[in-house]
Amino acid sequence: MDWLNAVVQGTLLGGLYALFAAGLSLIFGVMRLVNIAHGDLIVLAAYLGLTVTTATGMHPLLALVLVVPVMAAIGYALQRGLLNQTLGDDLLPPLLVTFGLSVIIQNALLEGYTADPQKLSAGALETASFGLGGLTLGVLPALTFAIAVVVIWGLQRVFYHTPLGRAFRAVSDNQDIAQLMGLNRRHIFGLAMALALAVTAVAGILLGIRTSFDPSIGGGRLIFGFEAVIIGGLGNLWGTLAGGVILGVAQTVGAKIDPGWQILSGHIAFLIILAVRPNGLFPRISA
Amino acid sequence: MPDALLNMTGLDAHYGDFQALYGVDMHIDAGEVLAIIGANGAGKTTLMRAITGLLKSGPGQISHSGVDIGGLRADEIAMRGIAMVPEGRQLFPSLSVKENLMIGAQVGRNGPWSLDAVYDLFPILEERRDQQSTSLSGGQQQMVAIGRALMANPDLILFDEISLGLAPVIIKDIYKALPGIIGQGMSAIIVEQDITKALSVSSRVYCLQEGRVSLEGGSDTVSREDISRAYFGIE
Amino acid sequence: MTTPTYSVTRSSQAARVGAALGGLVLILLIAAPWWAGRADMRLMGELFLYLALASLWNLMAGYAGLVSVGQQAYVGFGGYMLFALTMFGGLHPVAAIALAGVLGALISIPVAVLIFRLRGAYFAIGTWVIAEVFRLGFAQISTLGGGSGSSLPVAIVRSLASKRALRESLSYWLALGAAVLVITAVYFFLRSRKGLALTAIRDNETAASSLGIDIWRTKFIVYVVTSAFTAMIGALIFLQKLRISPDAAFSVNDWTAFVIFIVVIGGIGTIEGPIIGTLVFFLLRETLADLGTTYLIVLGVVAIVVMLKAPKGLWGLIRSRFDIQIFPLGYRVIKRNPS
Question: Which of A91, A100, A222 is closest, CB to CB, to C67?
């Protein structure tokens, strides 16, 4: 039962990792950009949530109403103002610019909020639990997983059933020809980053409710998201959810064996999958 | 020529350090069908890219309905009503047939062309509307590419090498459909390697040679000799 | 009628002047223990180690197209090997440094086989995962102090040299030697056939492979050699620090972020770039260090601006103005008028 419990908890944790990963997966799909600062943006969202909740006394989940649009606006501005200038055939500029961005965000957060660990207080939600077939599940992890499923379903919907998604796919396929259809790719990329950071906002708030955070943890979140993307297979959002779940289960099962092995066993699971299935479990596009 | 739909004056185009067009002067009137011929590398595709804005041209070098469009972005030019059927069709592989057509209407211009009108013109596309565009035959893909451009309801449509890589019988079909397409008051520029085909549907012709206009004339008045001289540069 | 003859040469006035000046500076630097204070020597030692790390990262990213953000894996690995080999293997520190390089090369082979499956930016994050695995792995080894780390026993420090002044000089010379060794090795490697292949790959991967260059193999060799050197530098770094912990050893900021900024600011894909970048980095650090985190923000902004506005870095700006190359890699055609 203990093991089953670990697997179930890991699955739920995987929902959070899928949320870390979804934004990464989205922007890679649309513009082949890998954003090294992605993890730091998740942490930024958590801090924005902290500011909103302490200033207004709002519940952190309610704070999403503010944090999501703010992060989306940041995403659009970031893409149009900075990241669009890095896109092209050369791999280095986007990589190094987002790396620089990562350092800037991290240190700006240090400056603004200090290095002290913080947490978003969600009251009773944090400890609430319910029984299910002999297991006790936390309401928060279950809610996180449900939100992840809804977010990925929503992204999938946007991607395949709306004019915006059609524009995303067209620009991703062929930027020049998409321009001939009257699509301004810079604007489309801006919208894609806005959507990605809106998802990041959700991830950041849920992260902040679940665990304490400080400005330095962005890199680790980027890695979890990245691992989920690669395990699931590039360009497949449902695969990303599966990747997040596999990573989460590997971590909780590892922690069950030895608490010090939690993160390490997640990485090892990732490396094993990379060794046996280099394109991930459900690939759609090649990197 | 103030009443020209599209006017190019001293158009230069560059790929990096390489100059592909040298001071091209050209115009097309409303409702006219223009043919542009020339050997490989003469600058035909470059000219198309410059007109559509995929290749930057200088201010004042191209005007559309009297408005300077030199230096505008490709999407801004598309919005003004210039559409292209690109060489090699270049459909969006991750969009279905219907979506490929729908995205053509993205510019939001009004006119006779709609999804239904395109399906009337190419009934096979309605049958295949939910398939991935890459699963179609070459001829059908060309129909999608033409339909996609029409969906924009442009006042000027550019056909870049539409017969390239297609079976002769399909080329015949497509050229048979052309008058029905262009006959609705739309202007067209047809770029072709197949000179006979190009002359048969156009009223005027330009020949490009090494980035310069080497011949201009009525499609039914230019002589074979003139063309071969302008085409190959043989005196 | 006299026709000018042309000859092809690698050498240039700038290169000859540069070599002469470089030799002079090198002699001066070797003599530092006789003219520089302790603090200055420490700083210069650190500078040389950063210079070596930057030159190595530049070889990978600027020439082989392997953009890694996980070089801290080998810095930390080398540091830990120094501690393990001296504490449990009883090796002399200098021997341990050399052996750390060999072990770094060995461990990088399976790592390369694995992460070379990732392309481009995903390769970059993959290297970071590896570094995290190393960090978490070493944190599990309790004999090396686990998560809190350990200090180098005094006896081992003494075995380097019994007098502190001599020890510090030795440590300085080792750092200087490492920088000179790395730059020389990179220079001669890039002039070799393999180096030319590398430049060809950087310029056009498809064309290079159609010319029969085995891209995977060439990149693999660069990765392994770079890892070996990086591990040795890591061992040297922690010989200076005398204390190691997983967080310090595998710090992405210290051993990768700063190194990347150095290379980008100085000029990626040139040998001169990392040298200039290192000097600028230390200049900035020494003048802005009081600003704390603001200094890092400034550094990040400078790196982004350089990447976008002058992608060839400071050295690229200098070179575009004066057309000089101190480390002659390219060939130039010289016109000689017969007289």
Answer: A91
